[in-house]
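FW: tagging you since you asked about this chain on Friday. Here's the raw sequence from the shared folder, copied in full. Didn't touch anything.
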Amino acid sequence: SERFALYQARFDALVAAGRIYPAYETAQELDLKRKVQLGRGLPPVYDRAALALIDADRERLAAEGVMPHWRFRLDHDRPIEWDDRVRGPQRFDPATMSDPVVRRADGSWLYMLPSAIDDVEMAVTDVVRGEDHVSNTALQLQMFDAMGATPPRFAHAALLTGAEGKLSKRLGSLGVDHFREEGIEPQAVVALLARLGTSDPVEPLGDRAPLVEGFDFSRFGRAPARFDEGELAQVSARIIHALPFAAVADRLPVGMDEGAWDAVRPNLARVAEAADWWRVIEGPIDAPTPDDDDRAYLALAAAQAAAIDWDGDPWPALTGALKEATGRKGKALFLPLRRALTGLDHGPDMVRLLPLIGRARTVERLQSHHV
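HL: got it, structure written out here
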């Protein structure tokens, strides 16, 4: 691919400069070296034995069919230092670190060098990643220097824990596809990430501008950040509740207009749920069977619904007339009507929903329980 050709060109230049060298140890040999070092109380750092090989050694190994892997040669003459945007000043002694393998014997690339090359070629200015990459950054800073490139600024954020405060394999495997499938709004993910690891509250902002303006690495702490999918879902729902019709029109069922969206959006956890309420409005619905008292009440309600003025506010007009006629109030007044009209015990404000259902469907649904 195009990127592989780019990696190869940078790789060849670094080999020519003596910053990348071939090494021939097998995985088993390297493992044995590590065990010996640990047994002697020494850190398991690669001993650079490959650098002692002469051309005749390499020719012999090649004749035997031994293919080398490739290591980046660290400069031991000076410490590696940078000012991390979250962790502050960082300092590593390269003499205590192994020369990292950048390419396998089969020619495939490991993460370290291609990542640095991509950052250079794409003119990346800032890299934000987990604190488990701090030592990788130390190695990559020498790679940037070897390529004659200005490194990006680095910020290493605390690792995430789940809602229960523990690291989770599931959390580590979550990706954008998961949240998309769950109906989470993209801006909710952005809003949560912009505050995760700080003491600032997560705000359900539909516009990124305030998040960008208020973003400050100095507000991020070193303690593990708690990621709660429930909190993300709540933020997403609050964003949905404020979304204008124009922002969601192409995601709504055919025929659903601005009035219907405004009526149902306060009750949505996902935009896709608007389709459920549109079916409630349009019908047919599957309403529960009322008891005898409520059946008579609904018959009276059907007559009142046919008689009231629908040009004003039909719900207050209907419930007001029924309250006066029956003496019912509270749950006894409202719940049988909601069940008969929507098939559900809870939902959007009936003041806004009833005009959308309309006179004809309202009367029909109320009459359907009359025997």
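FW: The longest strand covers residues 80-84.
HL: agreed, and Residues 350-367 form the longest helix (18 residues).
FW: great, closing this out.
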